[in-house]
């Protein structure tokens, strides 16, 4: 019987195609997380007290709850039961990854905002800038740069976490690897291959972020570390 | 050079931080073209006073007028008025992500909304005025020396065509050998008739350039008058002690 | 029996199982991290290379992949681990690798004078590491380690993929009987939030207790 099974490496192209879904999850999650994280951080730093409390609660919930619980909570609970909308696994996964990454990204970005020294705001206001002008022209451009290493990290985290979306059946790398394991009866090879694929994607992506960092970092200015 | 027209009037400014009253009613005025030096021991409230003038710090009580417009009036658009008040910080506070030239331009383009080419021209002029030569225009703050940074900061203030420039201990964060280049620029500006209000310990500068010294002590102006009078024959014992110590410390030029 | 009467004891049983893994895996992860971190700074070239490869591998693999590899992959080689063993081992390999980065960074941040003084006293490299460097480095690494410990608490929910009966596993099975996903998974979330929040406070208290007076220690 075993002899008649196809060998697992014949499925490599099939597994590799999963990268499209993996990167859809990663790209979507990071982008949504960015769109959420930056305003959340600004709200936490510059907003009124009630808003800070709401945002703190959001961050606490999404940072403190495991991803797999969030995925099931939203896929089976929040969207269909609470909101009455049926979303497919991919959309749900992107939204949940994004909501959670937003909580983490807000922390990264808040750290970056805090590391821009007070004098920058003072000097901007002294020139006659409004608070909003000072934030958009002076504080944000610096904080966004300082946050790049943090985002590099976040990319590596979300890439690996995207594998957890196999639990909802998104046909990304790990889901496909499991199909291969089931249909070939071999586990070691396929799972090792998948693991190495994630390592390659982690390092490749990190390289891209490093190039961005090199391009935009401010000469002579060492970020105070986030 | 000094006219009769009062450009800045500060009246009865009070400021308290928690249990400490930093300013206990300060009143003075500055005329167009004048350079006034505020001196006094640390903790006298000098820096707080400067920040109360452009409302970076809100005074608890008292009023400030610039060219007849009351800044402390809640109806006044403070951002509009701050454009007319240059401010030079002890720690420079150049914008880290902008080059020297961009630092000087940003107030012109974003606040004054000048077209880029006009802003650039003005910024270049201002930089040349403070002797920042073209080779430094595209350097980032972290690539400049302290003296260069502070001169760029002065150019940033100057380019806005301010009615007055407030200097908050502009040389205190500099290495001794870099102090001179900044003081020289400030002196040149003063001689050109740029109105200035300077918090400084540099007695030499005060004696050379200032029209009047305000000596602050314990949140009040204890004594004021022509520099030579205040420094060499003060009315109060604390004033005499202060200038005596400072002359020893700074070697009084 | 109603939903709550059935679910609460079940999920608490799951929570006990979760904790049963963590009480072993967390201290073991820290121990592995110290060994790996030290090896990467103090080891000779081959040791450094091995430790680095180890860390790169288990930081690079998603935890679910490691779980599958240990459970199904090792079975291909005739090594059969129970779900409990698999989960514990996977958490230690993954957690230890992540934590070792903080240990390594902390060791390297200890100023050279400490090392010179230790050697001037006649200490061997090993003595220097054990008595001088690590006691300082571990304190410095503690905030980072705390973060990783909190991650491990959350990621323990992935043990369900190899059939370990922890909080999430029992919940997932339970909703096929009572389809009340909102309630079930909110209870899960509450349990994890309670654990992570309690751990965060506990670890901060520990950091405070271990601090060296007058020395600003934390690095992240």
Short description:
The complex is a heterotrimer of chains A (226), B (253) and C (220). Chain A is mainly α and 226 residues long.
Would you kindly provide a written description of the structure presented here, covering whatever features stand out?
Chain A has one domain: MetI-like fold, CATH 1.10.3720.10. Helices cover 77% and strands 0% of the residues of chain A. With 253 residues, chain B is α/β, with parallel strands linked by helices. In chain B, the strands form two sheets. In chain B, strands 6-7-8-3-9-10 form a six-stranded mixed sheet, with helices on both faces. In chain B, strands 2-1-4-5 form a four-stranded antiparallel sheet, with helices on one face. Chain C has a single domain, classed as MetI-like (MetI-like fold, Orthogonal Bundle), CATH 1.10.3720.10. Chain C is 80% helix and 0% strand. Chain C has eight helices and no strands. The chains are: A mainly alpha (226), B alpha/beta (253), C mainly alpha (220).
Produce the secondary structure layout.
The complex is a heterotrimer of chains A (226), B (253) and C (220).
Chain A: H1 12-46, H2 49-64, H3 67-82, H4 89-115, H5 118-126, H6 131-146, H7 148-161, H8 173-184, H9 188-216
Helix pairs in contact in A: 1-2, 1-4, 1-7, 1-8, 2-4, 3-4, 4-6, 4-7, 5-6, 7-9
Chain B: E1 6-17, E2 20-31, E3 35-39, H1 46-53, E4 61-66, E5 69-70, H2 78-82, E6 85-88, H3 100-111, H4 116-129, H5 146-158, E7 164-168, H6 176-191, E8 196-199, H7 203-209, E9 212-217, E10 220-225, H8 227-232, H9 237-250
Parallel strand pairs in B: 3-8, 3-9, 6-7, 7-8
Antiparallel strand pairs in B: 1-2, 1-4, 4-5, 9-10
Helix pairs in contact in B: 3-4, 3-5, 4-5, 5-6
Chain C: H1 3-42, H2 45-60, H3 63-76, H4 83-109, H5 112-120, H6 125-155, H7 167-174, H8 181-210
Helix pairs in contact in C: 1-2, 1-4, 1-6, 1-7, 2-4, 3-4, 4-6, 5-6, 6-8, 7-8
Given as residue ranges, the uncertain stretches of chain B (5+ residues, pLDDT < 50) are none
Question: Class of chain A in CATH?
Answer: Mainly Alpha
Number of helices of chain B: 9
Write the H/E string of chain A, N to C: HHHHHHHHH
Distance between the termini of chain A: 56 Å
Domains counted in the coordinates of chain A: how many?
1
CATH superfamily of chain A: MetI-like
Distance between the termini of chain B: 25 Å
The H/E string of chain B reads EEEHEEHEHHHEHEHEEHH
Number of strands of chain B: 10
Could you please say which CATH topology of the domain at 1-76 and 191-253 in chain B applies here? Rossmann fold
- The averaged pLDDT of chain B comes out at 93
Largest sheet of chain A: none
Quick one: which chains have the greatest interface? A-C, 41 and 40 residues
What kind of sheet is the major sheet of chain B?
Answer: 6 strands, mixed
Supply the CATH architecture of the domain at 1-76 and 191-253 in chain B. Answer: 3-Layer(aba) Sandwich
| CATH class (first level) name of the domain at 1-76 and 191-253 in chain B | Alpha Beta
Approximate strand percentage of chain B: 15-25%
Identify the quaternary structure here.
heterotrimer
Q: What's the overall geometry of chain B?
A: globular
Under CATH, the topology of chain A can be stated as: MetI-like fold
